[in-house]
Structure formats: C-alpha cells, structure tokens
Amino acid sequence: MNYAKWISHFQRNRENRPEPDWAAPFALPESVLRPLHPSLAEYQLGDGGGPACLIAGDAEQFRGSSEAMRQIVDLWFAEEREHSRLLGRAVDRIGARRVHEHWSFTAFLACRRAMGVRAELQVLLLVEIVSTVYYRLIRRHCTDQPLRDMCSLILRDEAGHVAFHRDRLAAAGVSNWGLGGTLWELQFRRFGLAAAAMLWLNHGRCLRALGTRPLEFCREIHRELSRFVWRLGRTAQAPACVRLPMPQPA
Ligand SMILES: [Fe+2]
Ligand SMILES: [Fe+2]
Question: What is the sign of the dihedral through the CA atoms of 84, 199, 105 and 60?
Fold first, then answer.
C-alpha cells in the first residue's frame, strides 16, 4: 500500500473547500422540512459527531502498525469530524435541534467496541458506501443550494475514504477472485444490504419526502456496492510493478 499517496491525498483535500453559503435565502416546504430535521440531526451525530477514532478493542494493532498508518487514520477521522461540523451548520440552517444521543448510534458504537478492528473497518466502510447514496440523493433532490454544496464536499471526502479502504483491502490480499473472494464478496454484499436497510429505516421518510423513489435508492445501493467490489478486484489484480514500496516505520 502506498502510504505516501494517502497522506498526500488527505493533506491536499484540505485545500479549496468553499464553505456553503449558510446565510442564503431559505425556502424549503414544510413537507420536506419535517422529516429533514431528524434525519440531518441524526447524521450530524453519526457522521463524525461521536468518538472520531477507531474504537475496537484491538484498534491500535491497525492504527499503530506504522507511523504512516497512524497519520492516515488520524487524517481520515479529521475529515469525519469536519462532516459533523458541516452537518451541524445544516441542522442550524433548517431550524432543527441537534441531538446528542440516539438509540441507533449507541448500538452502533457498542457493536464497534465489541468487534475486532478488521470488522470495525468493514462496518465503517459499509456505512461510508451507503452514506454516499444518502448524500447523493439529497444533492440530487433537495432544492436548497447550501445543503447541496455541503453534500458535494462530503461526497468528495467519502470517495477518498472508500478508495482508501479499497487500497488497504487489496494490500491485505482481499479481492473478489476465486472461491475465497466469492465468499468474501457474499458476506460483504449481505452486510452492505443490512446497512442499506438500516439507512432506509431511519432516513427513508426524509429521502421519500425529497422525491426519492425506493427503486432509485435500491439501484444506487446496488451500484455503489458493485462498483466497490469490481474496483477492488481490479486493484488486487494490478501488476506489482505499478505498486510503490511500502514505507518502513520510523
Ligand atoms: Fe463521513
Ligand atoms: Fe468517511
């Protein structure tokens, strides 16, 4: 895995981030605002609003595997904290109340603490994949420009996070090739669909009020999961000569 590439990516990604115009005139109908309030407030808590770090019992095995990996993980979670800040501004803009706890978030944290870091990383990856669909659908259907601009910033970051996971999995020898790869893909898709179902359960009302059809949501989820698996296979099959050497810890 090319650690230097990811450190450089996260450092460059801090640049050129125009803040959405939160003071712009606001005109969303009540039918959209009512379900948007709890949805954005819960996302503000869930997307970087809690402990912005890996919390599995053995998380240090992954984060502390090298100084470069520690830096990458910290840069990744700094972007998650930024998502919570942006979502907080969005919550304030639409006149919603911020939430500091929610049963689904508490259960999510408990699961992450109880599982090993490999499982926690997969859970976070799947949440990032289904959240990509959430933000994309809001950007597509919401008429409020600052909210759409916020979604564009978060989508840009999440694309990098998902690509980072793809690189680290490929470097660990994971792919969708062969019997082992097929079994990995099956479990990955199954948990991905479970994450999507949770998203629809908690936020489907908001997405529907914005104009999203259930079929559109399912199609986007299928496309994101398939794209990840396909690109992982391609990355894992890339000739070794195009992979840069892994820097040694200092
Ligand atoms: Fe995020
Ligand atoms: Fe993320």
Answer: negative
Taking residues 73-97, report their average pLDDT. 97
Query: Which residues hold their Cβ within 5 A of ligand 2, which is an ion?
Result: 128, 158, 161
Q: What was the pLDDT predicted at 239?
A: 59
Distance 161 CA to ligand 2 centre (A): 5
Distance 90 CA to ligand 1 centre (A): 14
Please state, in angstroms and as integers, the Cα–Cα distance from residue 130 to each residue in 21, 125, 247, following that order.
26, 9, 32
pLDDT digits (tens, 9 = 90+) for 174-219: 888 889 899 999 999 999 999 999 999 999 999 999 999 999 999 9
CATH number at residue 204: 1.20.1260
Domain count for the chain, please give it.
1
> Encoding tokens for residue 217?
């949501």
* CA of 218 relative to ligand 2 center, distance in Å: 21
pLDDT value of residue 235: 87
Q: Is residue 10 part of a domain?
A: no
